Protein: Heme peroxidase
Amino acid sequence: MSTPTGDDGFLHELEQDVRAELRRAEASEPAEEINGVPIGEWLFDPVDVQREEIGLRNLLGAVEAMESAPSHPHGSHLAARDHCLSLVRAVDRPTGMARYGRMFPGLDPLGTDPQLLMRAGGNGGVCDAAAVLGGLGPGDDDAAEAAGWPFFGQLVAHDITADRSAIAGEVAPDALRNARAPKLNLEMLYSDGPIGSPYLFDLGDPATFLLGPDGADVPRNQQGVALIGDPRNDVHLFALTLHVALLHAHNRIVELLREAGVPDAEVFDRARITLTWHYQWIVVHDFLPRLVGRSLVERVLAEGCRWFTPPASSAYIPLEFADAAFRYGHGQIRHTYRLLDGGPAVPLFPDLVGFGPQPAGRRLDLAQVFDLPGRPPAQRAKRLDGRLATSLIGLPEQVTGSTDVAYRSLAVRDLLRGETTELPSGEAVAGLMEVPPLTADELEQSWPNGTPLWFYILKEAEHRCGGDRLGPVGGRIVAEVLIGLLRADPTSYLSLEPGWEPTLPAAGPDFGLADLLTLGGTRDR
Structure:
């Protein structure tokens, strides 16, 4: 048999690599229990592993299709072999999975009875908002910021964290693995670029992303599974719509670069860096000020981080961030959403669940959840108060996989996750930071040994910031980690050019997420 050469040789090698990875994934499928601990009590979701296998099968099918496909009749742009050789190239990722760690290693783990956690997070528990819905008037549960911001936060979480570890019993930090590089580099969008992930890009123009037939969806295989950089961005309509908006923004940046005369061999790299740096800017100057307060962001930028200072190229994700503070967004999910002006109000789950093609009539107008130029104010996020919307207390099976009813509650999952990873109490972290702790009345729930950090941060937001943003403990953790990750990344704008400012068009004096979301739909310079 002759050895394939050129493009055929590349695709042949890619096919062999994908087949090998798929064999490893299939060989590592977990049993129903590990060390006597049932699947429902593991830190990671087995459904993530299943989706990873689905992604590999999709990639294999895409490669096989490309190997057998004729030359593209409209192909005018070739994928340069060094498309990944940029500031954000895949070769810069750590070899092997990145690690988690502790932000406050000197604090003892809380240790709470799991049954107490399950009662608190289950139906009728202190985390269930259903009990107070009857006493709320119109707008009583609304926060100051627009309803789309927690979903943007979800995409940020997908960009920097992906747990693939089967965890049971006591957990040491060095046993945890993160399948994402701890960088705000839009890996969940670009994956391995046009060479490593060719199924994400237009075969005739590999510098641009491939979109669904009407441009409102991502491409999908014949079974409806998304061909996407991170399958979790297909979990519901909001994450999917934001992902698609970012794809359109990248494609528009490619157009602008070509209009400016950038050589075709450089267009993809320039577009990726441009989008990534604007995204990083948004995280620092638009997202964080809304979430933790502008004064705290300015202090951390000016004075540096006190609790999270990883050296360059050695960043990690603190468990206090991943398993507590940055799960704040679960408490901001509204009870219902309008997708269009005058449309019906529906809950997030099960009505807007993803993992399949969205019906043509179910499209989200982003102006319903973000304040966009020239449009009326959007719906607001739910107030942070420690209670989760009913649709999150009973997640659909498409999200959780087949599991016990108790584990359908996202609040139960959040509380148990903090217990499994041995997080300290909220009071202990507040004491270390020299922040006055919440009172027993403010917590509304008796916790014998201290309050789980995740719940404490939500109640702190309610009583210290009116439910509009995170308080001093939660805000400090989130601000230091996100800014610390950017400072530890030698390719971020904050490391390379701290004085850099956005170059893309803005509707007002300051560039923000609204400008990025509308970029793909405008031809204004």
Observations:
- Confidence is low (pLDDT under 50) at residues 1-5, 29-48, 69-76, 78-95.
- The first strand starts at residue 33 and ends at 34.
- The chain has one domain: 105-518.
- Residues 105-518 form a domain with the Myeloperoxidase, subunit C fold (CATH 1.10.640.10).
